[in-house]
């Protein structure tokens, strides 16, 4: 029997922005080696939950532990073990990628030699296809290339937990394939990957478990193979739980409006 070690816990978690309840009684457990997909419509609370796990946003009520640390009390310790890629890259656009990676390395106090850091940077840049842009200003780069810069910066300190908010969606097919393969290899080493995506096929193919969120609540958690064993696919479950089953009627109404 394999004993799964729970590394990330949310228990009775609540978060408000002003008077608006964004997260409503969230309960999740994520174990070592999980590739865990957070799925849901826009505004369902996925990004807020990921920011809490990453230690960049405080929650209001409940219990959260990330590798035994409480993000509200130990955000610095959380950031040492987490690599976080937000939905929109937040970068210093007046720097080049090379300068930015060196800055991130120094800020994180990476206990590796300059030559080893440079080697790691060059290997990651080559893998994600940005070697030719390493000495261009970040502000001049495309959104997809900025996304790759953000991803590489999250990997430099070899984090135990990787949190990716819609990060795969902006990649070109080759880079996406390489990155997904890397995520699967990292999970085999016991690392945790938590990511959100609107592309359900990606989640179906690489996730071990998923949580489907809607209007700030978790509507479903389970293993991907459990969904398949019930002769269902992820899209069917998602649409049913997020009140999206009226798609046919919406499309019909749109068509009638356009053609009338």
Provide key terms for this protein.
single chain, 260 residues, alpha/beta, Rossmann fold, six-stranded mixed beta sheet, 10 helices, 9 strands
What features would you describe in this structure?
The protein is of the alpha/beta class. The protein has one domain (6-259): Rossmann fold (3-Layer(aba) Sandwich), CATH 3.40.50. The chain is built from 10 helices and 9 strands. It has helices at 46-54, 75-81, 97-107, 114-127, 143-155, 173-188, 200-206, 224-229, 234-241, 247-259, and strands at 6-17, 20-31, 35-39, 61-66, 82-85, 161-165, 192-196, 209-214, 217-223. The strands form 2 sheets. It has a 6-stranded mixed sheet with strand order 5-6-7-3-8-9, with helices on both faces. It has a 3-stranded antiparallel sheet with strand order 2-1-4, covered by helices on one side. The longest helix is centred in the last third of the chain and has 16 residues, at 173-188. The radius of gyration is 19 Å and the shape is globular. The N and C termini lie far apart (63 Å).
């Amino acid at each position: 029997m394999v004993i799964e070690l729970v590394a990330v816990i949310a228990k009775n978690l609540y978060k408000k922005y002003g008077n608006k309840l964004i997260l409503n009684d969230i309960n999740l457990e994520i174990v070592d080696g999980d590739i865990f997909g957070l799925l849901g419509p826009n505004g369902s609370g996925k990004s807020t939950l990921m920011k809490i796990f990453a230690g960049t946003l405080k929650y209001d009520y409940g219990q959260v532990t990330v590798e035994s640390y409480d993000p509200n009390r130990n955000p610095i310790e959380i950031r040492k073990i987490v690599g976080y890629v937000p939905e929109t890259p937040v970068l210093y656009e007046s720097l080049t990628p090379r300068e930015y990676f060196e800055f991130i390395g120094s800020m994180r106090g990476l206990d590796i030699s300059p030559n080893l850091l440079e080697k790691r940077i060059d290997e990651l840049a080559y893998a994600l296809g940005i070697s030719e842009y390493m000495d261009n200003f970040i502000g001049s780069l495309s959104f997809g290339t900025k996304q790759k810069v953000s991803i590489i910066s999250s990997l430099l300190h070899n984090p135990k937990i990787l949190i990716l908010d819609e990060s795969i969606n902006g990649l070109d097919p080759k880079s996406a394939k390489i990155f997904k393969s890397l995520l699967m290899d990292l999970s085999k080493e016991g690392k945790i990957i938590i990511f959100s995506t609107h592309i359900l096929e990606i989640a179906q193919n690489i996730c071990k478990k998923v949580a489907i969120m809607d209007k700030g609540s978790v509507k479903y958690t389970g293993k991907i193979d459990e969904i398949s064993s019930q002769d269902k696919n992820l899209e069917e479950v998602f649409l049913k739980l997020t009140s999206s089953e009226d798609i046919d009627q919406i499309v019909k109404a749109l068509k009638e409006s356009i053609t009338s």
